[in-house]
Automatic annotation (TrEMBL):
Molecular function terms from GO: methyltransferase activity
Name of the protein in question: Methyltransferase
Record InterPro entries: SAM-dependent_MTases_sf
Annotated SUPFAM superfamilies: S-adenosyl-L-methionine-dependent methyltransferases
Taxonomy of the source species: Eukaryota, Fungi, Dikarya, Ascomycota, Pezizomycotina
Length: 374
């Protein structure tokens, strides 16, 4: 039986400031069986289930269940976390990322991973890379769940995940490792460490200079390598209530989160600009596949109903981490008034009279074979 190893204190692969997380391998790694991919539905009018009747008791419920999981410490020097308003935030590059990294947030991130997989009927990528990429980088890996799943499904790939927070597990596939690093630093990977596939998901709010990030990705990718950015629009919508008159707290929340993240310098709602950003960086064959992801069980379609069930819980769980620091630190709101807004937003989400959704963008493109990195 394998045993966990002590964390390494050696410098991170390709990083002048990072710390390598040396994981303990898990045995296994068969290719995953997934259903055929659903077609993108950016302009589809999702059908409403007339039997999903409003329940006032649901609308009055402002909060969901909070689960709890244990996180693994990696190195004591980066565990001096900042605690604020009852939530824990990263210590490495303190203040560069305004969402917490505590166990509640880790649970939400893993739930969000499930939502992404349900959206693609089990798949975790859309980029049509062939053959299997040898070296893979997961930007802002979070809990590491995407990197672990990719490593399991592609046992011949070497998968590296990086993040500001050392919250990843140590028991992982033998072809997966994690690095504590800031993707906005200058990348110092050597030419022989270039990647064949680079993935990023939910990076909105983490990046100040997107053109620079795309340049770093491009210059550290092998010719004909693929970049895939999976990003959700940080803007809740409704086709039958476009002005969100029945969800006024969410309408206000949309505006406030956008305003605060822009003022902070790292806008969250950037999904619609990813396609053009990749093209401007030199990537070819760029596609933006867009899927409407419902919030709640209101769709008539059974698959979308299940998807909406999980997304509703994820959205209710995301209200606090997306709101607390942005409103109190950036916009100067008081703690109590922020709590009132968050409770009203959750109430709007759980109101079955609302037929809400968010658009997920799966954007992927290929580095040309004929261009040499500068």
């Amino acid at each position: 039986m394998a045993q966990a190893t002590e964390p390494s204190t050696h410098g991170a692969e390709g990083s002048g400031v990072g710390v390598v997380v040396v994981p303990t391998p898990l045995i296994g790694g068969d290719e995953a069986d997934v259903a055929p991919l659903p077609a993108p539905n950016p302009s589809a009018q999702l059908q409403i289930d007339p039997n999903d009747a409003p329940d006032l008791s649901d609308a009055d419920s402002a909060m969901g269940e909070d689960a709890s999981t244990a996180s693994t410490s990696i190195m004591s020097s980066i565990r001096h976390y900042k605690y604020e308003n009852g939530r824990r935030y990263h210590a490495f590059r303190e203040g560069e990322y305004l969402l917490p990294n505590d166990e509640k947030e880790q649970d939400r991130l893993d739930l969000h991973h499930h939502v992404f997989r349900l959206t693609l009927r089990g798949a975790i990528t859309l980029a049509p890379f062939t053959p299997t990429p040898q070296r893979v980088l997961d930007l802002g890996t979070g809990t590491g769940i995407w990197a672990i799943d990719f490593a399991d499904e592609h046992p011949t790939s070497t998968v590296v995940g990086n993040d500001l927070s050392p919250i990843q597990p140590t028991w992982v596939p033998p072809n997966c490792k994690f690095v504590v690093d800031d993707i906005e630093n200058e990348w110092v990977y050597s030419p022989h460490e270039a990647f064949d596939y680079i993935h990023g998901r939910g990076l909105g709010g983490s990046v100040k200079d997107w053109p620079r990030l795309y340049r770093n990705i491009y210059n550290h990718m092998n010719p004909e390598g693929w970049l895939e950015i999976q990003e959700y629009e940080a803007w809740v919508r409704s086709d039958d209530d476009p002005e969100l008159l029945n969800a006024p707290a969410i309408a206000q929340w949309n505006e406030l989160i956008d305003e605060a993240s822009i003022k902070f310098g790292k806008r969250i709602n950037i999904a619609e600009g990813v396609e053009q950003g990749m093209k401007d960086a030199g990537f070819e064959d760029v596609r933006d596949d867009i899927y409407k992801v419902p919030i709640g069980t209101w769709p008539l379609d059974k698959r979308l109903k299940e998807l909406g069930l999980y997304q509703l819980e994820q959205m209710c769980d995301c209200v606090e981490p997306f709101t607390l620091a942005l409103l109190t630190r950036v916009l100067g709101w008081g703690y109590d008034e922020t709590q009132v807004l968050m409770a009203n937003v959750r109430r709007d989400f759980r109101n079955k009279r609302n037929h809400l959704y968010i658009s997920f963008h799966f954007v992927y493109g290929r580095k040309p074979a004929s261009i040499i990195s500068e």
